Structure formats: structure tokens, C-alpha cells
Amino acid sequence: MGLIIDILAALQSIPLPPIILSLSIILFAIFLSPLFSHKLGIPVVVIEVVIGIIIGRSFLNIIPPDPWLQFFSYFGLIYLLFLAGLEINFGEIREKLLPVISVALGSLFIPFLLGCLIAFTIVEVNPLFLGVILSTTSLGVVLPLSKEIRGHETFTNLLLGSVVLVDVFSMFLLAASIQLILGRPFELFIYSTFFILLLFTLPVFFNRFELGRKVRSCCEGSSYFHFEVRFCFALIAGLALLAEVIGFHAIIGAFIAGLAISELTWRGSELEQNLISFGYGFFIPLFFIMVGVNTNLPLLLGSIKNLLVLLVITLVGIFGKVFGIFPLSKIFGLSFREGVSLGFIESARLSLILAGAEIGRSLGIIDEAIFSTLVIFSIISVLIGPSVGKFLLKEKGEKS
Question: How far is CA 226 from its chain centroid?
């Protein structure tokens, strides 16, 4: 690692345009991050954020501000939320509707209320924004983890179904809260909300009229795949633009586009795999690296107050999920260990909390200290939550 840092620092002396040098460093980091992830057993997103912190303003400071990097990062954010929608499978909800909805509401509203409470009393940030941020979870972390869990069918169904619903609800709440915080007139907010809710019916419309089959049938042949890719990007752009025109952030439009495309294609299809490869090959890792670049770690670590805020947010963020989920999971037949494990696993936040933090920073809703706190909290939650959750399930399996 020390040799790599020396190489990156030496690159600064090369007479190249700043954007070329910055992109070269970032591409090198994107290439290395999966290798470190595999070696250390840590999610690759965490590695990307940490690399961003190292090469950014916190340490080496070798990535200067650049409008092209901001554009690539913003596109990565939009595409990240598109893939978040693409990952969602509503079939996981239909199997056990009442338990899934109940656990999802507990996972959503208890952390939301606790977040609002500490924002009023301890943390100097908008209560609505912090509440929404702490209500999120991470389907991208939970999905691969669920495949490692064996012999807990009810647990897995509740986990996946509730995380899917929390992702959808928290995405809408994030977009809505931003508009309220920015002072949008209430009448216009209600009007915009109505149209956004109508957009959420788009995937149902696609499924009802078998639009996916019709698109594939009219584009059969060697070039149909490329047409589907173009259709996906046109839909992302169109719905993101429409969301902005209506008054919401573009991320909600991209998320709905992902939900719609998930109804057009099938799991594991060539289209889905290539859409995922396109995003995770460059734009999404660049977004996470830029989140790390913009993190001001010395500001966070240099203040006792900021460290106290980090501690409070971490405790509330993790145990708020546990307290919100555990009582409901017991009602629906999970054991004590399974209920606590479910809460810890859902306490892992990554993609959406980083997206929300970046949006909040760029719009001036949160300052650098809170932004850096949320970034570090997301890393801590991903390292602690799933590990404790898996340990509790393993202990139960060994005792039985």
C-alpha cells in the first residue's frame, strides 16, 4: 500500500492536464479496489470510499476539483439508483405480504423517529433529513449476504422482502424530504408527489401489458440487444428529466426507471448483466471514490463534538434498526437470535446513505462535518451489522 501511495504522489509531478491525471489515478484505483476487497474480505464499495479518502483532501489531496469529474460522479449517482431499482424483485414481497410490510415499517419508522429526535437534541442537522438517512438500508449489501444464509427460509424471506420495501419507501422519502427542506410550496409539493406516485405505477403498467415481451419480439435479431440498451438509457434520461421538471431530484426518476426495466427483463439476462457491468465498471466506482475524495476526515477527527456526533449517529443508526425490527419479527415466528440478527443485518447502509449524503452536501443541506460523519458511519455500519448478524445466526445453527 505504501508503494502505491508513493506512485500516486509521484504522478503529480508529471506535466499532464489535471483531468487526465485525475482520471488515470481514479481508473487505477477502480482496478485495484476489487483486489483489495477480495484480499481483505470487505465490500468493494468500502474499499473505494477508503481509497477516495486516501487520495482526496483528507490525505494526499491529488484529485483537484474538476467539472468533468463532477459530471461523471453525478452520472454515477443517477446510474447507481437506476441499478438499485433494477435489483428489486417484488415477487419477494408477495410471498408473505403482512410480515414483510410490518417488518419494513418497523425498520423504516423507528430509526426515522430516533434520527429526528437526536437532530432536535444533539446533532445540528435538519431532523427530516437525518431521519430519512437513518431509515435507509442497503439491498446491495443484503442481497449477496442472503445467499450465504442456509436453513433460515422464513428469516431470508422476511429479510429480502422488507429490505426491498424499505429501499422503495426510503427512496421516495429522501426525494420528498429534499423538496420540503428546500422550501418548495406545499401545494406544488402535493402536486409533484401525486405525479411521482403515478410514475411508481409504471412498472405495473409494463408488466400488465407485457411490454418487455413486445420490445424483445419487435427487436429480434443480432442487434436487438443494443436497441434494448438504448431503450434503457432513454428511459433513465426521460424519467430523470421528468422527475426534475416535476420538482423531485433526478434520482427518483432513475430509480423508477430501474423498477420498470426489472419488469421488462429477467433475472440473470444478458441485458441485466451488461447494464450492471456498465455501471460497476466505471461510473459507480468513480462516484464512491469521489465521495471519499470529498470527505474531510481531519475535520471530523479534530473535534470532540464531531466524534460525539459520529458515536451517537452510529449507536442510533444500528440499534434503531434492531429495536424497530426485533419485536415485530418475534410476532411472525422468528427466534430471539434471528430477530436481533435481522435488525443488525438491516442496519448496514451503503449506497443510498452515501447518495443522500452527497445530495445533501451539494445542495447545502448538510455541512462538511455531517457529510464526513455520514460517510464514516456508512462504513462502520457495513463492517459491523452483517458481521454481527451472521455471527448470531451461526451461533443458533451450532446450538441446534
Answer: 27
Cell of 23: 482520471
Query: In terms of Cα–Cα distance, which of 116, 92, 114 is closest to 103?
Result: 92
Task: Enumerate domains of the chain plus CATH numbers.
Answer: 67-399 (1.20.1530.20)
Whole-number Cα distances in Å, 10 to 7, 62, 227, 283, 293: 5, 10, 44, 25, 18
* Structure confidence by residue, pLDDT tens digits, 218-247: 555 545 557 778 888 999 999 999 888 887
Scan for cell 449517529, then name that residue. Answer: 313
DSSP state of 13: G
Element (H, E) at 268: none
Taking the C-alpha atoms of residue 203 and residue 219, their distance in angstroms, rounded to an integer, is 20
CA atoms of 81 and 284, how far apart (whole Å): 10
Q: How does DSSP assign 140-200, residue by residue? A: HHHHHHHTT--S-HHHHHHHHHHHHHHHHHHHHHHHHHHHHHTT--HHHHHHHHHHHHHHT
Residue 82's identity, in one-letter code, is F
Q: Which residue bears the cell 442510533?
A: 316
Distance of alpha carbon 354 from alpha carbon 319, whole angstroms: 20
By CB atoms closer than 10 A (0-12, 13-18, 19+), residue 12 is middle
Give the dihedral sign, CA 210/100/253/372. negative
pTM of the full predicted structure?
0.87
Query: Largest Cα–Cα distance in the chain?
Result: 65
